[in-house]
């Protein structure tokens, strides 16, 4: 028995009932935690010490879900996730979690409360949002458990309801793509839409593209970041993932567009003088508005709608598309041309081949028919 005690982490003792106990004292008050795993218990007691010593610990009988969410975000997530993810977590909590349990105490939340949230939200949100809600809830309550604020994590006893099937991706046909670009070229932002359709770049990657990312000699685009908004200020953030940092060969039309655009922007900058007003740190962008500042996502969305309105005003039927449609359409054209999945994965910056293969299940009906004809002589 003495030998087993020596192997326990410092400050951990084993009780007669088989559980392990960790305790410490701070400013005259005792704090005690119990657990079945001494190593995990050591992690929990260290976390609890930090909370107590930094004045962010509240007794489990008092702390509310809303109060703990603020603490969890500030002390644990702010330095772990990107600013865009931090902002997304806050918006998800405010819109999809807080209305259900904001005033409830952490200790009063039971698995059925969590299940009620997931069931209700599954009827109104998409697959990705519901998964994010579950991730936030689990992280929130798991940390509360590790810190000794609650005795069990209620999220672990909940079940994700059957998710709604996401609508099939909208992809433009070749004819629609040509029609869209014919009208897009009548606007100031036609270039950015054509480059999007010719590279498959994400919208944030396009908006953050700098001239230092353009290698005209080797006809290569280096994707090095994405445009994000932090504290009401636009900055170039790090890529979405490791695979998002990549090189994309320029097609001839992209090479011609960027060559012309480089020349025209230099001329416009001289012409406008003081009216050329780029944002600090973003004065070398490939795609800018008429005065050298960033092109925002709202601007792209506005012109996407504007171009479609132009088409319909001319009496032409055109099913609605959004910015992501451009990326999906590029991928479909690449698949139709016979591009190998592994190559397409690299160009799109996907983190897994499964994501790319999922695109192959959404190719246009005409392409499916053509491919099936390749095996017609076998029967």
Molecular structure report:
With 379 residues, the chain is mostly helical. The protein has 3 domains: 7-57, Double Stranded RNA Binding Domain (2-Layer Sandwich); 63-166, Orthogonal Bundle (DNA polymerase, domain 1), CATH 1.10.150; 174-363, hpI Integrase, Chain A (Orthogonal Bundle), CATH 1.10.443.10. Helices cover 49% and strands 10% of the residues. It contains 16 helices and 8 strands. It has helices at 2-7, 38-53, 65-77, 83-96, 98-101, 111-121, 127-146, 174-184, 190-199, 203-207, 252-272, 297-313, 323-336, 341-348, 353-360, 365-373; strands at residues 12-14, 20-26, 29-35, 214-215, 220-223, 226-230, 233-237, 246-249. The strands form 3 sheets. It has a 3-stranded antiparallel β-sheet, with helices on one face. A 3-stranded antiparallel β-sheet has the order 4-5-8, with no helix packed on it. Strand 2 and strand 3 (29-35) form a beta hairpin. Helix 4 packs across helix 7 (127-146) and helix 14 packs across helix 15. The termini are far apart. Residues 1-5 have low confidence and may be disordered.
Structure annotation, total helices: 16
CATH architecture of the largest domain: Orthogonal Bundle
Which structural class best describes the helix and strand composition?
A: mainly alpha
Number of strands: 8
The major sheet is characterized as:
3 strands, antiparallel
CATH class of the largest domain: Mainly Alpha
Low-confidence stretches: 1-5
Overall pLDDT metric: 87
CATH topology of the largest domain: hpI Integrase, Chain A
> CATH homologous superfamily of the largest domain, by name?
Intergrase catalytic core
């Amino acid at each position: 028995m003495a030998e087993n005690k020596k192997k326990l982490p410092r400050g951990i003792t084993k009780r007669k009932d088989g559980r392990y106990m960790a305790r410490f004292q701070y400013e005259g008050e005792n704090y005690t935690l119990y657990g079945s795993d001494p190593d995990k218990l050591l992690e929990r007691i260290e976390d609890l010490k930090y909370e107590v010593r930094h004045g962010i610990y509240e007794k489990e009988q008092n702390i509310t879900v809303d109060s703990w969410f603020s603490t969890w975000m500030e002390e644990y997530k702010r330095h772990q996730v990107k600013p865009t993810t931090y902002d997304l977590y806050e918006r998800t909590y405010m819109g999809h979690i807080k209305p259900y349990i904001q005033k409830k105490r952490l200790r009063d939340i039971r698995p059925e409360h969590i299940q009620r949230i997931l069931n209700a939200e599954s009827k109104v949100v998409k697959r990705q949002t519901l998964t994010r809600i579950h991730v936030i809830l689990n992280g929130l309550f798991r940390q509360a458990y590790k810190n000794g604020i609650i005795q069990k994590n209620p999220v672990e006893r909940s079940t994700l309801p059957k998710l709604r099937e996401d609508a099939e991706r909208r992809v433009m046909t070749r004819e629609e793509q040509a029609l869209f670009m014919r009208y897009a070229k009548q606007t100031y932002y036609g270039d950015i839409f054509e480059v999007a359709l010719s590279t498959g770049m994400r919208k944030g990657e396009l908006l953050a593209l700098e001239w230092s990312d353009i290698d005209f000699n080797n006809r290569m685009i280096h994707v090095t970041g994405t445009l994000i908004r932090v504290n009401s200020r636009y900055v170039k953030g790090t890529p979405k993932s490791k695979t998002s940092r990549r090189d994309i060969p320029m097609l001839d039309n992209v090479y011609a567009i960027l060559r012309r655009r480089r020349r025209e922007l230099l001329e416009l900058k001289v012409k406008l003088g003081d009216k050329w007003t780029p944002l600090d740190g973003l004065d070398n962008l490939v795609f800018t508005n008429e005065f050298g500042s960033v092109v925002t996502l709202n601007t792209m969305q506005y012109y996407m709608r504007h171009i479609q309105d132009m088409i319909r005003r001319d009496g032409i039927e055109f099913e609605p598309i959004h910015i992501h449609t451009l990326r999906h359409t590029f991928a479909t054209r690449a698949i139709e041309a016979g591009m190998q999945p592994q190559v397409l994965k690299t160009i799109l910056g996907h983190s897994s081949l499964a994501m790319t293969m999922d695109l192959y299940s959404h190719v246009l009906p005409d392409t499916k028919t053509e491919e099936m004809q390749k095996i017609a002589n076998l029967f």
